Queue: 3 jobs
Job 1
Amino acid sequence: MSTLASPPSAPLSLSQIETRFKNRIWRGDASGSSADPVVSSGFDELDKALPGGGWPVHNLTELLLPAEGLGEIRLLGRPLGQLTGDGRNILLVGPPYIPYMHAWENLHIDSRRIVIARVYKPDERLWVLEQGIKSAAFGAVIGWLPESSLQTTRRLQVIARTAASLIFLFRPASAQFESSAAPLRILLGPVAQHTLSVRLLKRRGAPAVLPIYIVLPQIKPFLGSAVSRPALAHC
């Protein structure tokens, strides 16, 4: 006795697929979303361009600079200030200049929460970055990596996935032509006084076509004797 075969099930509609695989797919015309937490940059237009609406936690963010002192710390000032205000520390690994702490304080960053590791050999710098990220002792880890490789960034990204920290790598603008495992890569450039060009070279989701122009907060001048060393006043 033969039995009738059951009719084939109807294919899922696009809306059904999106519902079933929510947070696992993204549309090509939308910014990539992620279940990872983010921290607002403090700049509305930039938050709109960043996947998830802010700087990503559990991931590397590369900021590529044609020169030091363009305003890169002012770009990060809001989240860094919030972290130190919450009692969390910030680790700086291999900064090329002694940070000008008066300028950082003007950004509401508590300088007592800043830890500086003055290491410049590539292997030592990488080791300190890894230990800082693994330690969970820092709300943010900022490292200066003049030289790096895909293997290095991949290794750091794997470690970053386990850390509840903001992790920023400052690298030269020429690194934009190199491969990197960082999910977010941004090229910074000067436009005018107190204005920064922010071009998202790599992000989850659709690529950004045009740069964003960010007006940075101004630093109040300090009239004390510390100004006698302007070469160190990079912010």
Job 2
Amino acid sequence: MASTLPRLTPLRAPLPKLRHLRRERLRLADGERTTLYVARYDLRRFDVRVVRLPRPAPLEVYCRANGFDEALVGGFYQRPELTPLGELRTGGVVRRHVPFTAPFDDVRACINVDGSRVAIGRRGDLSDAPAGDLLQAGPLLVRGGALVHGDVEGFSAGSHQFDSDITAGRHPRAAIGLTRRNEVLAVACDGRADDEAGLSMPELAEAMAALGAVQAMNLDGGGSTSLVCGGRLRNVPREAHGIALPGGRTVPTAVVFRRR
């Protein structure tokens, strides 16, 4: 598929005066379009944390109640209790979660935050008992600046743990990445509407690389896709049938960013 880099164009519609947030209109190879919301967090100025919400809530609601202006949806979960799916650690402590089934538990991508150090990679690339916070989701989208091809992490084979095969089709998506400029990229895209195609997993990987990510991974998406900037939800989460979810879906985990 052709590179998305020449097809990322700033929207003319006004945005709030947030220097770290941009909204891009992405034209896909078949002529369809979708909207990306791209927040950049300079690690010299922002701290990053993984949080498990004490009570699952829409991300904007959680942020407002807990004094966070900046956050991105975290990992997957299982119903009905909304138990996090995939390994979860905060402050070096393993939190209650449902593990991914073997052998995928050892290969699916994670973000690990230890103080000012942020790493994104497959679980086997990280310490067995990493310090700080760890959130497992995946798949890995960009590794060492190169696109990751194929379903190496077994999301199709392990789709019984999800509502559907998350690698199939275009949907609203969320991703997190690291750039060479010591930034964290927090990205969400719209979808499931006539003028919002959403992204496939390969298209999301291309978009992250085009935005400058050298490491990037997929997070929870679909109706859970949520990016809060300046205290407001910026994207438009939608159910599978296209109905908008005002305020977003209830989620159990998030990645939060706080200015130092």
Job 3
Amino acid sequence: MTITIWIIVATLAVLLVLSLKVVKQYEQGVLFRLGRVVGVKKAGLTAIIPFVDVLHRVSLRIITMPIQSQGIITRDNVSVDVSAVAYYRVTNAVKSVVAIENVEAAINQIAQTTLRKVVGQHTLDETLSETDRINLNIREILDVATEEWGVAVTLVELKDIQLPETMKRAMARQAEAEREKRAKIIAAEGEALAADALGTAADIMMAHPLALQLRNLQSLVELGVDKNSTVVFPAPLMSTIGELGAFLARENAAAAVTAPNVTAPSVPDRPLPAQPAPNGKAQLASATP
């Protein structure tokens, strides 16, 4: 009798253990009774009928799913390897269990095909520069496909884009040429601004001659900072000396024209002193008028 009681108590304990299930805070339990869905159990302690009910726990947390690298040919016929990462969560526990067998594997496969499809519709430059738009397009396509599965894709991000080595070198040359072009344009703009400023300064100096002299003095001060023996003659000084010489020449010419004609006294012919001849005899040279 005692053994029978112990058997009954043990059986009841086993049934009690089998009938009590714990659903965690981040889960929902889909209850099947004889193969039919009878409800959804919330977080906490739940009692079921052993051997009759089956409870499937479904996590409602956001799941991070990496999308492995895909070999993709872009619209401009460039081969690239693109990998991404997707974030999704279950919004309907019943659909995620009933509508599809393995929701994680299904999302992984459709994410790979969607990534290949969307990136293949863009050129290489668009793939590198417009990643936000590509991410949004992939997420929208996945949302439509996974809505029937009770899953919502919250975010898709391109993680890595691998380019061929030849394309990397070509892009490096292109970037270098672009930088050189910008440098030349900036230098040309600087020259244009400098020329404009110099023209304005020249106009001001033409209106105020004293400003040019002050600028020359400033240049001399700057040159005299270092101890050297350089002698600098400002250009205005040299031009002043030239103008002074021209003025004196004009004055002399005018004086020669206005002066009275004066007859020079005649000089009588005088014999020149005797010079020794090559043969040793003195010869007398006469002056010619």
